[in-house]
Structure formats: C-alpha cells, structure tokens
Design goal:
This protein is mostly helical and about 450 residues long. It has helices spanning about 10-20, 25-30, 45-60, 60-75, 80, 85-105, 105-125, 135-160, 160-180, 185-205, 210-230, 240-360, 365-410; strands at about 425-430, 435-440. A two-stranded antiparallel sheet has the order 1-2.
C-alpha cells in the first residue's frame, strides 16, 4: 500500500484521515454524529493549486499565490515533492513571495520564501539528484543575501546602532542591484532606513547642545538617499523616485536649518561669554579703582593726621625753643646784671666811707646805709627771681621742644612723599649780657 502524504493544515489533515478510513467506519462515524454530516470537500490536486497560484498572480495577490504554490508542493506525493516537480512548486512559491516583498518591502515575505525553499531542500535530502536542486540552492542564497542584512539592520535599529543598521541596509540594496531587482525596491529600503535615522535624530535632540553629536544621523540619511538617487534609471517612473528626491531636499533643508540653529546658539553663547568677560573685567577695574580710592583716602587721612601732628610738633618745638631762649635770656640777664649791680653798690659804699672819714660826724650815713641795704636786698631778690624764673622757663621750653621734636620724628613724611622735608635747627648765641637761642625751620 503506497504511503499517503498528508497536507500541512489541520483541516486538510482531518479530511485526508477521513478519506483513508474503511467505508463502514466512515459510515459508523457519520451515523454517530448528532446531526447530518456535511459533504466532504474534495482536496485540490497539485496542478489545481498551481492554477490557483497563477490566477492569484494575475491579480497581484502574490502572498496568496505563494501560499497556493506551497499547497501545490504539499499536495504532491513524497516522491513528487523530492523530484523536480516539487522543486518547481517551491521555486514558484518563493518567486511569488519575492514579488510580494517588492510591493511592500515586508521582510516577512522573504522569510516565507526562504522557508518553502528550505522545506524542499530538507525533503529532498543531501543526496538528491534533481536537476533543479542547484537552481533552488541559488534562489535560497539570493533571498538570504537580501533578507539577512535586512534582518540585521532591523536588529541594529532596535538597538540604536544606526550606523551599523545603515551598513546592513546598503548591503541589502547592493544585493538587490546585483540580482537586477527593480530600483524602487532598493529605494523603498533606503527610505525606511533614512526615516529611521530622522526619527532617531528627533528623539535624541532636545537641546541645542544635542545637535552637533547627532547631526551625523541626518547627514548619513541624506548620503544614503543621494547614492541611491545617483543610480536611478532614467526611465524610472515609480513613486519612490519622486519621494527620494523630495526627502533629499527635505534633509538638505533640515541639515542647513539645524546647522544655522547651532551656529546661532554658539554665536549667542560666545557673545554672552564676551559680555560676561567684559563685565568681569569692568568689575575688577571698579574694584581696583575702589581699592585705590580707599588707599588714597587712607593715605590722605594719614597725611592729614600726620600733617596736623607735624604742625603740633613744630608749634611745640617752636614754643619750646622760644621758651628755652627766653628762660636762658632771663637767667643770663640775671647773672649778667648781678655782678655789675654789686660792683655799683660796693662803689657807692666806698664813696660813702670816704665822705664819712672826710666829714666825720657831720656826714650822716643812716639814710644811705638803709637805701644801700635795700638796694642790695632788692638785687638779691631780683637775681634769685630771674635765676629761678629763667631756669623754670628754660626747663619748660626744653621739655616742650623735646616733645615737639619727638612728634616730628614719629610723624615724618614717608620716603617718596611730595614736599620738602621739615628741617628745624636751634642755633645758640651768647652775648656778654644775654644768652640767645635762635630757631631755624624749613617746610
């Protein structure tokens, strides 16, 4: 009894089992059913599925055509599946799925084509000698050359690896070109990749600072579309061609606007930095000016106080010098007057003694002696007073002068200060009757 190949779908499998049952079991099963059993649909043959696939292709239902051709493969006997007849059905199914991919760019269609080709190769086995085996292997390699980089591109996009995704997309586009697919198929892939780049750029750029590190996403998208646009056939009338041109212009404008926005922000920041630098320089200048004003005010205050103290010192020194000179003068006057007055008194007394000897008792000396004694007492008082007064005046003058000199020394002008240096000098002079001190000053 030959082996029966069961269809892949559960419903078809159930029908096949029912048909394989003996008549009495089938009847028993039908009688056991609660209601009347529907008439079993007769499964299509492989050739019927092939005709269905052709009809669906004519209506551009390529996905339905691919499934119909796959059903045609499943409807064959196991031997027919392994032979060229099965290889032909698998190839037709894969081609239909490729046409579906060309329409919408869905990679799942390529997966379906690869799956049906892989199914035939597994059924045929490694030692199969069908003449179409190499054709199926070549078709499998061609589909994988497109599908694998597209799948890797999607994985890279999901992981945020945009440059890697672009490289895989370009590899898929090169495979499409090499296999002489329509230009619009590669254009559709390039547009999808470019849109992903733009979306990633928009998601990454929130502030102006984000523009520069992410601008390459837009530049990469523009470059990909420009390279594809340069390979567009002159007679291409596809909607993808016009869309590529439009997207290139949009990306050019977008890149220019973002660059201008970045430059404006950088210029604004540079101006802010320059203004901040100028403000800081002005602040430092004002601070230095204020410090200089404070220093000058302090110096002026110190100079004013020092000048006042110098004036006080000069006044004290001058006063002390005058007092010293006056005291010295009084002492000198007293010391100089006393000897002469005594000599004058002695001369008057000698003259009175001579007159007394000459006239005897006739010359009365009482009044003279009383006056002479009074003269001598007055002379002693005067001499003592002038000596004491002059000494006190001299001592006070010296003390005052010393105090003034000390004040001048402590408050002398600093080195480099304007104005002449104060000079004071006490020049003593002595006469026969007085002792003088002269004061010399220069300001």
């Amino acid at each position: 009894m030959p082996l029966v190949a069961f269809p892949s779908s559960p419903a078809a499998c159930f029908l096949a089992v029912a048909l394989a049952l003996p008549p009495f079991l089938a009847t028993t099963t039908a009688l056991a059913a609660p209601g009347p059993a529907p008439a079993a649909a007769k499964p299509k043959s492989s050739s019927a599925w092939l005709r269905t696939g052709e009809a669906r292709e004519r209506t551009s239902d390529f996905v339905g055509a691919g499934q119909a051709y796959r059903n045609a493969l499943d409807a064959l006997s196991p031997k027919g599946q392994r032979a060229n007849e099965g290889a032909r059905a698998a190839g037709l199914s894969a081609d239909a799925y490729v046409q579906a991919f060309q329409l919408d760019g869905n990679v799942a269609h390529l997966d379906s084509g690869i799956e049906v080709l892989d199914y035939w190769l597994q059924q045929a086995g490694p030692d199969n000698r069908a003449s179409l085996r190499k054709s199926i292997e070549l078709k499998m390699a061609q589909l994988r050359a497109i599908r694998d980089p597209l799948a890797k591109s999607k994985e890279a996009l999901d992981a945020g690896k945009l440059e890697e995704a672009t490289e895989y997309s370009e590899a898929a586009i090169e495979a499409l070109e090499y296999q002489q697919h329509e230009w619009s198929v590669g254009a559709r892939i390039a547009l999808q990749t470019a849109n992903a780049q733009v979306i990633a750029y928009d998601a990454s750029v929130e502030e102006v600072d984000d523009i520069e590190p992410n601008l390459r996403k837009l530049e990469t998208a523009k470059r990909t579309l420009e390279e594809l646009q340069s390979k567009r056939p002159p007679d291409d009338q596809s909607s993808e061609g016009a869309l590529v041109q439009q997207r290139v212009r949009e990306l050019e404008d977008r890149i220019r606007d973002e660059q201008r926005r970045l430059q404006d922000e950088q210029l604004a920041r540079q101006q802010e930095q320059e203004e901040a630098a100028r403000a800081e320089a002005e602040r430092k200048r004002q601070q230095e000016l204020e410090q200089e004003r404070q220093r000058l005010a302090a110096e002026t205050k110190d100079d004013t106080a020092r000048a006042r103290k110098r004036k006080l010192g000069i006044i004290l020194l001058a006063t002390g010098a005058v007092a010293t000179a006056a005291g010295a003068g009084v002492m000198g006057e007293g010391l100089a007057f006393a000897p002469g007055a005594r000599r004058s008194g002695d001369a008057e007394q000698a003259e009175a003694d001579a007159l007394e000897q000459m006239y005897g008792d006739a010359y009365s000396r009482d009044d003279f002696d009383r006056d002479l004694q009074q003269f001598r007492d007055d002379l002693q008082v005067r001499t003592l007073g002038m000596s004491v007064g002059g000494s006190v005046l001299l001592a006070g003058g010296l003390a005052t002068g010393i105090a003034g000199a000390v004040i001048l020394v402590k408050n002398r002008r600093p080195k480099g200060a304007r104005g002449g240096q104060d000079k004071l000098a006490l020049t003593p002079s002595v006469s026969r009757s007085q002792v003088h001190l002269s004061l010399t000053t220069r300001f």
